[in-house]
């Protein structure tokens, strides 16, 4: 970690994460998953983007490489945003991710039968092959206790 005060606070958080996920005695973790609910909050608290990315890097080494687990991170992004620090973190995370779930509203605006779309990007380009990333796009509708997913143009309203 870098030497700033915010980085030292994240080091303490990382130590907590590492200690919490490290199996003790009879525990046997089989692929632990670290869920980071909203990484953007750290930026709004004044943590620098470099410190945030260092924190995620150290978590990735501990969870993915050492414990053979996975990390799931939520960050908020907006293409029209002027928050350069947040966009730096988002772009860096996308660059280092195997799988990206990008959820957004409809570009055409509100619709009562379709609430938005989810783009699933499987990053095969990280494997240094000549293949393109696999991208799947689905639309969704949020209901009382359920979410319905369907291919673009195949909502119940259209059919």
Structural features:
159 residues, alpha+beta, 4-stranded antiparallel β-sheet, two-stranded parallel ribbon, 4 helices, globular
Short description:
With 159 residues, the chain is α+β, with helices and mostly antiparallel strands. Helices cover 33% and strands 22% of the residues.
Series of H and E elements? HEHHEHEEEE
How confident is the prediction overall: mean pLDDT? 84
Number of helices: 4
Radius of gyration: 19 Å
Question: Order of strands across the widest beta sheet?
Answer: 3-4-5-6
As residue ranges, the low-confidence spans are none
The level of helicity is: 25-40%
Please report the distance between the alpha carbons of the first and last residues. 54 Å
Report strand %: 15-25%
Total E-strand runs: 6
Q: How does the overall form come out from the CA principal axes?
A: globular
Main β-sheet description: 4 strands, antiparallel
Structural class: alpha+beta
Topology (elements, then pairings):
Layout (H helix, E strand, L loop, with lengths): L4 H17 L11 E4 L3 H5 L4 H18 L3 E4 L10 H13 L2 E6 L11 E7 L11 E9 L4 E5 L8
Parallel strand pairs: 1-2
Antiparallel strand pairs: 3-4, 4-5, 5-6
Helix pairs in contact: 1-3, 3-4
């Amino acid at each position: 970690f870098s030497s700033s005060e915010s980085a030292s606070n994240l080091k303490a958080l990382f130590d907590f994460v590492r200690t919490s996920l490290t199996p003790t005695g009879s525990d046997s973790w089989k692929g632990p998953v670290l869920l980071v609910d909203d990484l953007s909050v750290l930026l709004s608290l004044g943590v620098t983007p470099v410190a945030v990315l260092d924190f995620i890097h150290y978590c990735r080494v501990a969870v993915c490489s050492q414990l053979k687990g996975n990390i799931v991170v939520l960050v908020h992004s907006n293409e029209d945003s002027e928050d350069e620090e947040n966009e730096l973190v988002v772009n860096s995370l996308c660059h280092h991710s195997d799988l990206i779930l990008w959820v957004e509203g409809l570009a055409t605006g509100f619709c009562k039968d379709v609430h938005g779309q989810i783009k699933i990007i499987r990053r095969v380009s990280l494997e240094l092959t000549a293949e393109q990333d696999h991208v799947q796009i689905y639309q969704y509708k949020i209901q009382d206790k359920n979410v319905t997913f369907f291919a673009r143009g195949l909502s119940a309203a259209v059919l």
